Amino acid sequence: MRTVPPRSAGRLLYAQSGGVTAVINATAAGVIETARARGVPVYAARNGILGALREDLIDTSKDSRAAIAALRHTPGGAFGSCRYKLKSLEANQAEYARLIEVFRAHDIRWFLYNGGNDSADTALKISRLGKAMGYDIRCIGVPKTVDNDLAVTDCCPGFGSVAKYTAISTLEASLDVASMADTSTKVFILEVMGRHAGWIAAAAGLAGDGADAPPHIILFPENAFDEVAFLAKVKATVERVGWCTVVASEGVRNSAGQFLAEAGTRDAFGHAQLGGLAPVLAALVKEKLGYKYHWALPDYLQRSARHAASKVDAEQAYAVGKAAVDYALDGMNAVMPVIVRTSDAPYRWKILPTPLARIANREKKMPRGFIRRDGFGITAAARRYLAPLIRGEAPVPYGKDGLPAYVRLKNVAVTRKLEPFAP
Amino acid sequence: MRTVPPRSAGRLLYAQSGGVTAVINATAAGVIETARARGVPVYAARNGILGALREDLIDTSKDSRAAIAALRHTPGGAFGSCRYKLKSLEANQAEYARLIEVFRAHDIRWFLYNGGNDSADTALKISRLGKAMGYDIRCIGVPKTVDNDLAVTDCCPGFGSVAKYTAISTLEASLDVASMADTSTKVFILEVMGRHAGWIAAAAGLAGDGADAPPHIILFPENAFDEVAFLAKVKATVERVGWCTVVASEGVRNSAGQFLAEAGTRDAFGHAQLGGLAPVLAALVKEKLGYKYHWALPDYLQRSARHAASKVDAEQAYAVGKAAVDYALDGMNAVMPVIVRTSDAPYRWKILPTPLARIANREKKMPRGFIRRDGFGITAAARRYLAPLIRGEAPVPYGKDGLPAYVRLKNVAVTRKLEPFAP
Fold first, then answer.
1. For all residues of chain A together, what is the average pLDDT?
2. B 349-378 residues with CB below 8 A of A?
3. pLDDT of A3 higher than 50
4. Residue A361: how many CB atoms within 10 A of its CB?
5. What part of A 252-281 touches B (C-beta under 8 Å)?
6. Beta-strand relationship, A217-219 and A187-192
7. Does residue A181 lie in a domain region?
8. Would residue B317 count as lying in a domain?
9. What mean pLDDT do residues A64-92 have?
10. Could you tell me if B144 lies within 8 Å of chain A, comparing CB atoms?
11. CA-to-CA distance for A203 and A160, rounded, in angstroms?
């Protein structure tokens, strides 16, 4: 089958996939620095797997050691990411053939795909191409997602930092609300990411402990929204504490299973407003209880806030990148480096390889035992799990202009060798 | 008139007013530490002027040196703030009489009121009580407001930190959007505070410079919203850059003078949604241009983000507190310490006293020359003014739990001596 035999020891291709995080570039740094140390050149695919399909590749050797090191503290996806799921080999053989064509043309012998559930699935499919299409490619999945919903791994790189940002923001905004509550805002609602699982909302619970400490109410997508209980809890909190901080997961649904955000607010054109749960809850509080409210919806700010990243998270993100290269170069295939927790206190972890087949297309739910019985807060078990993940700071260097010194890579394109291909 | 002659050298009363900031407590630290060094005891009024009226006073001597020092890095208002404007002496003589009664009962000889325009007006009224009501009280206004709209002072403590937070957030979220634009979000809208003036939105402009750098569009309340020009600019930016970051001041109005936020989205009950300009703009972009969008509304997060505060801002906040005490104890009355810029580059500033009469009830607008001719960005003059204000970091100490070590004061109440009074 091999028409063009490799003339070198081969190259490693790295690609970022799905929603980016504050630390996915730390993984990229782990990948590139480790590969460089082992003498293997690294290409990156521009915009994830699409770059591989389009033969839109980046030669990472054109960026300096300092630039690659700076990826460790730069948020976003330095090579571009994508939302694109490969179909099965049967359903879209042309795409797989194209991938092999691109790999062969550029002597790609190792492919590292950095993403969530869907990306693990893509990585698994590609890992099987070697046998199916007669080209020797080893494929490693690299974990990443703020959603913290990958199977097997104890936590997902990216989650710890959004968790830390959310806990800090909850604490800070609550200090503000506490100051003003006598004559102004009594209820503050922070809407956080989490369409299917309440991991990020749960992390807000780390901002305080005890009935009077914020957040006073957490709303999880795991529970159907109970309007009566919610309003009663808001009222009781305001009457006892003087004010109330609510942290709500965007994915909160009513008992009919509809997203509350969509069931409520309509925009100027009558469309359901996405990402707008907070104003729906705020309006409810105002209508039924008469309290003055404020609400916040940090959206991308929460997952790009590298300036407030967790040290543990940044270290784990780097470590999975490093491990992925080692696994690939040591001959492994179809695995993902996962984080294994060996101790809660002191927190200890290590990286181990796990078959992608155990991870692809699965979703880790938050344990029921992490949500308090009343449904509005987290349990001691949740605290034990979450607390270590936001520990330690990973400060960014700041420029003289007062802004974080984030790097923009040159991203020099590799000369194309093939005909264009439209995925 | 004096029925109870003072038995001591007198006390200083400090109160916080209006919306709080990331650094108003640094001003409190400046006040308390300076007064302590000069041997003058400090009471704080709980919840601003209301605490003075209610005789709800806090003895700051009950909090340790370390606790007071920690105010320097703790956001929110440590003693509580309020939104409450004293009427004129003629309109509500009872309240002024009550203030004098409370001052006299607790031997308050100096009153420092830390706030914005309204608070400067309150401070001015109280400064005139001495003569009007025969009690020797000196009153100093202390500047604070994220709105940056106080007259005379070059800038307002609190603004530099929200400016820095906004510039950092714009930069970080833009790195995220840039990564995803190929297959996902193309337009990101960040809504910031600024009902009447675009100071905070303007500060977002520091995140980048040049036509292709974010933010690509800033919407100011100073300009009537031009839908056609806005959409054309969004479209041109997406076509040229691949994506577009918009920063919009909450106070943007249409040509009829209505807030765009209120003219658009209605909540589930048909009420106009306040603070919801971003979803209105996002819906417009989607409807007219078809681009996928995300939007963020950080609300209180922006003004309480002490973890990302500006060093210059934190220093100025402390300095105005210190100066206010010195002015008061040195016999001044009816003045405010203001920040005078003596040089742009290198940035140099000093604190000088200015009569409250020049500040009370005035509003500093953003100069027209700070907004670019096309209306969608800031000028070089704006950069010269804004850039120094976000320079330098003022890191917070973090606890082992990974959260900023913010202080909660004991806030021990002073024993009441008077009958209750309901303001």
1. 94
2. none
3. no
4. 11
5. 263-269, 271, 273, 275-276, 279-280
6. unpaired
7. yes
8. yes
9. 94
10. no
11. 9
